Records
---
Amino acid sequence: MSPISKREYLNITKVRYHKASLTKKTRILDEFTATYSCHRKHAIRLLNTPLVIISKPYKRRGKPPTYRNLIIKKVLEKIWLGVNLPCSKRLKAAIPLWIDSYQQNFETLSDTILNLLLKISASTIDRILRPLRVKYTRRGRSTTKPGTLLRKQIPIKTDQWNEFRPGFLEADTVAHCGTSVSGSFVNTLDLVDIATGWTEQRATWGKAEHEVVQQIHDIELSLPFSILGFDSDNGSEFLNHHLLRYFRHRKFPIQFTRSRPYHKNDNAHIEQKNWTHVRQFLGYERFDNPKIVPLLNALYKSEWRFYHNFFCPSTKLISKQRLGSKTIKRYDTPKTPFQRILESSYIDPSVKKNLSELFQTLDPFKLHQSIRLKIKAIFSIL
C-alpha cells in the first residue's frame, strides 16, 4: 500500500471508529491492524487522533535556483539573437564581449546579475533558451560546375584542419539564385582563414574569372596577415589561368590547392561559414539586380567583417583520433577570430595594436542593427 493510500484509508477508518460502539471498535481495530500492518497499540493512537488533514507545502530539494530570473533570461535572449543564434558554448564565450554594449544600449545591470552571467554554464544557457530555439531546415541549390582545365596543375589537399599559421585560406562561392540557376545573378565570394577563423566576403555579378580575381585581390589588401595558401573547390571560377597566374607569378608564390571533386567535407571550414555568415542573414532569395553588388560590398567591407571577426566566437578542431569505427574530435574553447589573432605569435605586434584600438570603438548591438537595416534596404530593390 502506498503512503497516499495509507493516509486515505486512515482518514476513512477514523470516521468509522469515532462513530462506532465499543464492540464495533474492536472489529474495526482488528481490520485496521491487518490492513495497515501495524501494532494494535499504534493503531489505537492513530485512530484516536483528531481528523485533521495537514498538507505540507512541497519543498524543492537542493539549493534554491540561481538563474530563475527574468532579467537574466532577457539579457541572454538579446545577446543570443545579436550573435545570430549560436550554440550555448559559443554564446557563453560571447557574453563577456557583448555585456558592456548591452548595458550601454538597453539597461544597467546589477553586480549580482553581471557575476551570474559571467559564471553561467553552457548547460544552464541551454535550459533557459530551450523554448526559444528554432530549427532551420531550408536548403538551396549547388551551382559548382567542375573546371577540368587545370586539375593536373593544382594539387589536392585534404588535411587543412591542422593549420596553425594564419594565412591558409579556404574559399567558396555562395549563389544567390533563388530556385533557378538560369540567367545572371549575384554570388558571394566567401573566404575563411583556417587558423584564426577570420572571414571575408565580397559580392560578384556572376562568376566571371577576372572579377573573382579582382575581389580576391581586394580581400588580400584588407586581411591582417599575408596569404600563404589558398584552397578551393573545383569550380571554374577558381580553376582558371587568371587565378593561377595571380598566385604563382609573384615574388613569394602562394600555395594553390583544391579539394577532391564531389567531396564537400574537404572544405568543411568554408562550407560551415557559407551557412552561418551568409545564408543565415541573406537566405535563399534570388538577387538578379546588378545594383545589389555595390550595396553588398559596402556592407561586407564595413559592419559585416567587424561583426563576425570581432564579436562572434567559434570553435577550432585541435585533435582527431580514430578508434575503430568512431572518430573522436577535440575542440578548443570558443574564441573570436580577433582573439585568436591576438594569441598568435605569427602576427606582427603593430597589427595586433591596430586591431585592439579598432575593437575599442565597436559596438556589437549597433553593428548588428546596422547590418539588419542594410539588408532590409537590399531586399527592398529586389
---
Amino acid sequence: MAFDRKLPLSVLSFCLGIVRAAHADSASAPENWSLHAQSTFIEQYHPAFSSPYMGANSLDPRSDGRETYDITLFAGIRLWQGGEAYINPEMDQGFGLSDTLGVAGFTNGEGSKVGEAVPYLRVHRLFFRQTFDLGGETQNVTSGANRLASAHTADSLVFTAGKISAVDIFDANDYAHDARSDFLNWSIIDSGAYDYAADSWGYSYGIAAEWSRDWWTWRNGLFDLSRVPNGRDLVRGFGEYELVSEFEARTNFSERPGKIKLLAYANRGRMGDYLDAVALAGKTGAIPDTALVRQPAFKPGAVLNLQQEISDDLGAFLRFSLNDGSKEAYEFTEINRSLAAGLAWKGTAWARPDDTVGAAFAVNGLSEGGRAYFAAGGLGLLIGDSRLPHYGTEDIFEAYYRAPLTDWLSADLDYQFIANPAYNRDRGPVSVIGTQLHAQF
C-alpha cells in the first residue's frame, strides 16, 4: 500500500497557520467564532496467526501492518444568542487492517470502511446548535472543537440539526469514547450492539434534542440510515431512519461523580433476516445473502452505559448492549450483544500526572440467526470467514499508555488481544500492536 505522508503534512502545516492566527485574534470570551484543528496518525500491526481457512471478509492471517491518517478543521460561528453553526472538513488517508474486515470489534476507531491510499477531502459535519437557558447555576463552557467559549445555565434545552455522528450526542462516556484520546477498539469506545445510523464514515443527517435539569438529561434523536447497509450514500428525508432516546442520571456515589445512562433505539429500513437468507440459499444451493431477502423492518436495541470516578486519578466504565439479532447489521458491525468494562488511571503515582493508562475488555456475541448465516458462508459488513463450524464469543483485551509530548502533541502505545476473531474458534488468537500520534490545537 502506498501511503504518501508529504501531502498530509503540508495540509497540517497550513491548518496550523490558520488556527494560530485565529487564536491570536480571538483570545477573549465569549467567542463569536473559533477555529481548531486536529491530526491523528495510527499505525497498527499484527503478527501471523493460526488460520486453517479464510473467507472474503476474514482478517488476513499473514503478518500485516496498516496506517490511517486524518486532519480535521473545526470551524464555528455564533449566529445569535444561543445559536451556533459548525463545519468540519476532514482529509482522510489510509486503511484499517485487512481493509477494516475480519473482526466484529474492529481494532482502529479511526479506520473507516472506506480506505484510500490517496488523501481525499470530505465534510463530515455541518450542523446548527441552539441552546435555550432555563435557569439554575451559570456554567462556563470552555473553547474547544465544535464548542464556542460561552456561559449557559445548568438547566437548558439544546437542539442540534444537520450532518453529525449519532455518537457525538448519544452513548458518550468520559473514559472510553474517542479513539483520538483513549481506547481504539470499536466495541470499547462505543457500545458494540448500538447499530447507530451512519454512512461508511460514521456520520448521518439528523436532529436531536437534549433537555437538562439538575441531576438528569433526556436526549432524543432522529437520523437517516444509509441507502444500503453501511453504504456511502444516506437516505434523505428520513425515509429510512433511526429513532433513539437516552436518559442520563448524574450520580454522586461516595462524593465522587458518576453517570448512569439508559439508551433505547430502533432502526427502520430495508434489512434482511438471517434465517430467511439461509432458507433461500437452501432452496437454490447458493451462499446465503441478506441482500436477496431485504424488506421493510424494525431492528430495536438497548444500551446500559455507566461511568464512575473512583479517585482523583482513577475512573471506571461499563457498557452492556444488545439488539434484535434476527436482522443483519445495518450500519455499525456484527455484534448482537456486548459487555465492555475498563479503567483509566492518571500517572500521578509515578510523577506523570498528565499521562494516562487504560485497560479494558469486551465480550461480543452473535445471535443464533447470525451464527447460522455465517456458518453457511454468508458475508456481513465486517466479517465472513466462509464458514463458522465452531462459534465462540469474540473476546478482546486492550491496554494503552498515552503521554503528552508537548502542550499540543501526544503519543501512545496500544495493545489488543483478540480471541476468536469474527466469533471463529478455528482462527487466532490475534495480537495487535499500535502506536498513535495526535496533535490538537
